[in-house]
Amino acid sequence: MLNRNIQPAICEPSHLDVQRPERHVFPNGIVLNVLDACDSEVTRVDLVMGGGRWHQTQPLQALFTNRMLREGTRQYTAACIAEKLDYYGAWLDLSSAPEYTYVTLYSLNKYLPQTLDILESLVKEPVFPEKELKVIVDTNVEQFKVNLSKVDFLAHRALVKTLFGGHHPAGRLVCEDDYQRIVPDVLRQFYDRYYNSGNCTLYLSGKITGDCVRRVEALFGNEPFGQGTRPEKKTFRPETDARKQVFVERAGVLQSAVRLGMLTLDRCHPDYLKFRVLVTLLGGYFGSRLMSNIREQKGYTYGISAGYASYPDQGVLTISTETANQYVAPLIAEVYREITRLQDEQVSSEELSMVKNYMLGDLCRSCESAFSLADGWIFLQVYGLKDTYFADAMQAIKDITPGEIQDLACKYLRKEDLKEVVAGAK
Q1: Is 220 helix (H, G, I), strand (E, B) or coil?
Q2: Sequence-ordered list of residues with C-beta below 8 angstroms from that of 399, at least 6 positions apart, any chain
Q3: I need a labelling partner for 144 at 20 to 30 A (CA). Which of 14, 60, 293, 324 fits?
Q4: Which class for 373: exposed (0-12), middle (13-18), buried (19 or more C-beta within 10 A)?
Q5: DSSP assignment, residue 13?
Q6: What is the 3-state secondary structure (H, E, C) of 55-77?
Q7: What is the pLDDT of residues 209-225, one digit of tens each?
């Protein structure tokens, strides 16, 4: 009988056996990646297109081009698309990023022929109807106005502009007038250039049968579609603000949003995988240094985190929280104190072991389902990482030592480079 008074042993995974996609090249040149790793009769179809915010000719062009795919095609109206997807129990997700846009369909296998027919129409023949576009733009403008009243939104905008500068696509802040310049012709220009078979990669994940592959090939893999080509790689140089502190006033609020951030190494840097361990130790999980000190001991905030955001050719380290206005200065002082501790003192083996166990478990969870596997392999494609990334990440977590943590903290947690952004009341 199980003795519940005895804690189960912690078993460190010896290796990470990540299923690799089975790759096919269709007659029109599209590469299909198949991940058959599911018992349920569900399939996910991902179309990954090159071309995102880095390639648009005006703000919001990539976002609204992608968003408007579901608002009407030559065959289907927006209402018909919504009704059919709901009837077949399907889910459509549309999103865009700096260098890519994504069209994702979740479908029950028994209705895959019907849902693929809708997906084909969305991708190949959208019409960008003016009436529906105006409704969506007006809705987004109202949401934008609401967001401008939130201190966390204001702090994030101020931080990226401080780090990248207003001419960089990451630091160029959207304003209300940008929404009004979104018209159907602007979206068609972006669509015509980037939505084509020569600029597309396909992923099939779930319970994938030969019939699934054949149906996808029949609709997307035989004849070329679209006239554009793959976008060229664009590189932008950040123009970081020289100011150490930036304040954004939001009168009358009881809490201020605090963002500390700095430009740092990108995902392809040889130190990146071990740098992730340092960031997690500092503020990447509930038992982190920042949470233990600033939340548990000082009570300055309900939650505080340190994280890494990836941009093309650049990474950003961000420390984020909200706190009562009177605690802003002491909270920031405690953040610097924890960074100094990491630089001056080696972390204990017990604390490092806890961080390693957390990160190893999180890494294993990221590869436990067909859909998370698809996310992982898309991630590798987007950031140009090697197929050995998952094994390399596990090995880096297992191998890192307290001495390496201290060296990385001295090398990359430079307090003089951290920008302090506060949005709130004076």
Answers
A1: helix
A2: none
A3: 324
A4: buried
A5: -
A6: HCCCCCHHHHHHHHHHHEECCCE
A7: 999 999 999 999 999 99
Distances (CA, A) of 284 to 72, 223, 268, 337: 42, 47, 20, 17
Q: Per residue in 230-254, is it b (16+ CB within 10 Å) or e — as a string? A: ebeeeebebeebeeeebebebeebe
pTM for the whole structure: 0.92
Question: Which residue in 99, 101, 232, 102 sits closest to 170, CA to CA?
Answer: 99
Burial of residue 189 (CB within 10 Å: 0-12, 13-18, 19+) is: middle
Q: How far apart are CA 322 and CA 303, in angstroms?
A: 8
The encoded tokens of residue 146 equal 């609401």
- Report the alpha-carbon angle 222-225-229, nearest 5: 120
Helix (H, G, I), strand (E, B) or coil at 300: coil
Token pair for residue 93? 């997700």
171-206 residue pLDDT tens? 999 999 999 999 999 999 999 999 999 999 999 999
Total length of the chain: 426
Closest CA to 26 of 201, 279, 234, 177: 201
Query: Quick one: which of 120, 130, 128 has its CA closest to 217?
Result: 120
**Burial degree of 384 (CB within 10 A; 0-12, 13-18, 19+):** exposed
